[in-house]
Each structure stands twice: as structure tokens, then as C-alpha cells.
Amino acid sequence: MRLKIVLILFLILSINTKQAFAQQKEGRTENVCIQCHSQLGGKFAEPVEQWGKSIHKEMGNNCEGCHGGDPADMGRAMTKESGFLGKPKLLEIPDFCGKCHIGIKENYSKSAHGIFAAKTGAPNCVTCHGNHEVKKASLELINEKNCTRCHTYDKPQKIKQALVSTDKEIARLSALIKDVKGSSIDTKRLEEKLFASRNAIHQVTHVLSVDKINAIKATTDKELSAVDKSLKAIEKEITKRKRIAIGVSLFCFFAAAVIILYRKTFLKPENWFKV
Known about the structure:
By secondary structure, the chain is mostly helical.
């Protein structure tokens, strides 16, 4: 069985090496991690299929973003020299994910989840979020089915209820910013504020303390209120500009009508010499 797997891997390596050289000649490169795993099929292809439905892919984070290695070179894809990390061990998962999710890792490490996981390895990041098919973080991840795998749903439910109104407000303001983004008004500062508020909520969720969550929520709600106030001012400015544009259009239309009427009435040849 092992010999068969080795032969399959050797065959795929040969094919992919030829393809890699062909791509280099044509001036293009493909992710050899995805290419190889896809061709192996079965359980080896599952990570690629799952990653294809994930927020990681949507955000542009490929295999090497988590696992390291060289995604453009088949020979260097899984070498230490290219920074290949491979699959993390159970106790390494928080640090593995924490390379990018720094604030969340800090909060998680101080929580009941993190303290228990430091000894046993679980619950860790993939316990709740999965490994390759990672979904966009939302309050929907806090649900009875997920949480009751390990404990009762009482405390998670309180955490979710504490954040529902703030989460809805973030979604509402995000939609409003999207609506006004097409105007000539710069919304970058408001987008950055909203992004910071969303991150603050996502990070504090991992603290697992309702009191701490409520404290951060109060601060975040003030920030969101300021964003809402700024958006209302922008909406007023847009309405003002629209009225001015309509007024200018009506004036131009009226002026054009007057000119046409004048030309037809007073500039007829038979009226040129009338006293």
C-alpha cells in the first residue's frame, strides 16, 4: 500500500515538475500545493475543496499563508529552507492561527478555553472554526449545537445576546457606507473606524466574560454612534448636492426653452425690420 502511494506521488511530482517548467517558460505560475493535492484526490484533495469555500480563499490567503513553503516551486514547496511548517500539532494550533489573528489569540489564551487548551490541546481554534473550510466570523458560530458539544449553552447564549444589537448596527452602518461609497465623498476614515469596531467585537468574543464583553460593547457602541452621526451628515450633503444638481438642470432646461422661444418669435426674418 505504501509503495503504491509512493509511486503515485512520484508520478504526480514528475507531471507537476514538467508543468511547472512549462509555466515558467510561458511566464506564469500556479500554486503547486493546490495542483498536487487536487490530483491526489480522496482525503488529500479534501483540504483544497474545503479551502475553496472558505473566507481564507475569499480574502486571498492561500496554502502558504498558513503552512509556509514555496507555492511556485514543486521542489521547494515542502522544504524547511522555504519556511514550510506543515500540519501543526494539537498544542501548536493557537500559535499557528495566532500568526495572523494576534488580538484574538491574546484574548483566547486568557480565557477558560485557552487555559484548558494549554494543558489538553482543546478547545482550540479549529474546534469552533474548522481547519480549512473556515467561515466568516459571525455570531451564528455561537449556537446550541456547537457549544453543547462541550458544555451547557447558558453562558454562550448570554454572550451572544449581549452582542446581537452591536452586530446588527455594524451590519447596518456597513450597508450605508456601501451606499454612499459611489459618491465623490471619501468614506475611507469611516470604513477604518467600522473595521476597528468589528475587530474589537470579534476579539472580545473570545474572552468569554460577559462583564468584559459588555464593557467593550459600551465603548464600541459609542464609536458606532459617531460613525452613524458622520453618515447622516454625509447623507445630508448628498441630498443637498442632488437638489443643487436638479436646480441647475431645471435652470438649464428653462434657459434652453426661453432661447428656443426667443429664436422662433423674435428672430423670424419677417420680424427683423418691424418697428
